[in-house]
Amino acid sequence: MELIQQLVNGISLGSIYALIALGYTMVYGIVKLINFAHGDVFMVGAFVGFYSITVLHIPFVLSLILAMAVCAIFGVLIERIAYKPLRNATRIAALITAIGVSLLIEYGFIYVRGAQPEAYPGDVLPEHAIHIFGAKINSQSLLILGVSVALMIILQFIVHKTKIGKAMRAVSFDAEAAQLMGINVDRTISATFAIGSALAGAAGVIFGVYYIKIEPLMGVIPGLKAFVAAVLGGIGILPGAMVGGLLLGVIESLVSAFGYSLWRDGAAFVVLILILIFLPSGLFGKYKREKV
Amino acid sequence: MAIFKQAKLFWTSIVLSLVIFGVIQFMITGQMLNLFYVNTLIFIAINIILAVSLHLIIGITGQFSIGHAGFLAVGAYASGIITMKLELPFAAALLVGGLVAALAGFIIGFPSLRLKGDYLAIATLGFGEIVRIVFLNLDYVGGASGMQVNHLTTWPWVFGCMLIAILVIVNFTNSTHGRACISIREDETAADAMGINTTYYKVTAFVIGAFFAGIAGGLYAHNFYIIQPSNFGFLKSFDILIFVVLGGLGSLSGSVIAAILLTVVSTFLQDYPETRMIIYSIVLIVVMLYRPQGLMGTKEITSIFSKGKKTKGGAKDGNKQTVA
């Protein structure tokens, strides 16, 4: 029954990856940029949640919303200051700027508050153990799963049923044509960054509640893995990011379950390289031939 | 005439670099430089090797690889094993470090060639991380606590390796192979259509770049008393990438200058690691926003002295960045 237990852990971890991966995939779909700073938005979300729970004594749900709001603003600011001037620059310039922004957030944060880790209070969510098929499932992991699924459903609704969602799909399909059709591309891109960053912020709070320990450099590895998840599902495709995230979480948990827990971090990158070699457009992507 | 001029330039630069070497060697033996400065000089030379080796991959061939620390790690550990476990001489260690890293370059280069731009970048990043995790889990080389290595790196060794690395890469760039690589950088599809074997040249560039990164790894390892997997994280890859990008993609002298400049700056900021990273990242962002082609663009330092002459490249050369 160890296996079911690990599967549950994997799904909880995977839903966190999926939330971050959604932001990556949305941004990549619309501006073709690997937003390296996305993992750091996740970190900022975790800290906003932490401070609002411990210092401001706000209940969990409101803290989550606060963290999402702060991260949305933060994401838009990053886009406006660092990425917007580079919209017509080369890909490499944009990518390096993203790396620079990521380093700046991490070390700026350390400079301001120090590098010491913080521990989330344990009593944020009620804790019950539920026994199913002999596996002990924490009520926390169920709640986390519930929050992630709810956010993903809201996102699907926004993208497919609202005007801004339609604009986002149009811009990601062809930015120039969308502009000719009267869509405000700048505003659409800002909205994309805001939504993606809000999801990353929510993932940060959930991560803090689930794994207790948070620190300024915590965003780096989950950020990279979320990107792997986005590539796994087919970058630019929202359901792909969700499936990719869940799949990656499960793979990692299974690797630990079979006793290779030290190789866990490596597994994600091995999956990445295999996917890129054999299925370069991901599980859900279509292969596009390059036009000359 | 052109050949004479090139030969003259070549010998002038060789003589000049030997003079620099001699002066510094004289100052070291005369104990005019203390250990701190000698160490900084060794660091500069190692970083120059790393910068020019990555320059060949990114600046010349246009393959955006950000896992260079992986090759550095392979070279460092391979040469460490040669000297510490097998107790062979240092020269053999450097050579084996380079060769093993070149093999790694071949292994990663060959399958990744189907990838372009961002995807290649992320695949090489993943490769660098895998290398780090493998060394972290290998008990033979000490795992997380690291591997003890003797201090064998001296100024003549680093300078010699640096000179060889620069010479090989300059000559490669100016050869037929180098031109083929540049054509791949400018437009891979067009180069392929003109009958250039893009796979072959991309792998060659990867292997040569990895070879010198491996040698730099050997020098790096034997400059410390201990090497740990945490020394070779992707922050190290970014450090090397920054040399190349800041100096100007496609400019060898640019990456050398950036390597010297940034090594000096970061050495003096060593006591304030956070400030160092903040300054680093701000410089990176500002350069990308206001001068995306880097300090030198694709120009070389020699072309500053021969002003007014047309560069050999096409219309794009020197004014528009075409990498990636």
From TrEMBL, chain A:
Belongs to the binding-protein-dependent transport system permease family. LivHM subfamily. GO terms for biological process: D-alanine transmembrane transport; L-alanine transport; L-isoleucine import across plasma membrane. This is Branched-chain amino acid ABC transporter permease. One of its GO terms (molecular function) is L-leucine transmembrane transporter activity. The keyword Mitochondrion does not apply. It is found in: Cell membrane. The chain crosses the membrane at residues 7-30, 50-78, 90-112, 141-159, 189-212, 218-238, 269-287. PANTHER family: BRANCHED-CHAIN AMINO ACID TRANSPORT SYSTEM PERMEASE PROTEIN LIVH (PTHR11795), HIGH-AFFINITY BRANCHED-CHAIN AMINO ACID TRANSPORT SYSTEM PERMEASE PROTEIN LIVH (PTHR11795:SF371). GO terms for cellular component: plasma membrane. Its main location: membrane. It is a multi-pass membrane protein. Keywords: Amino-acid transport, Cell inner membrane, Cell membrane, Membrane, Transmembrane, Transmembrane helix, Transport. It holds the Pfam family BPD_transp_2.
TrEMBL record, chain B:
It is a multi-pass membrane protein. It comes from the Bacteria. Keywords: Cell membrane, Membrane, Transmembrane, Transmembrane helix. The keyword Membrane applies. The keyword Cell membrane applies. PANTHER family: HIGH-AFFINITY BRANCHED-CHAIN AMINO ACID TRANSPORT PROTEIN BRAE, HIGH-AFFINITY BRANCHED-CHAIN AMINO ACID TRANSPORT SYSTEM PERMEASE. This is Branched-chain amino acid ABC transporter permease. It comes from Fictibacillus marinisediminis. The lineage of its organism: Bacteria, Bacillati, Bacillota, Bacilli, Bacillales.
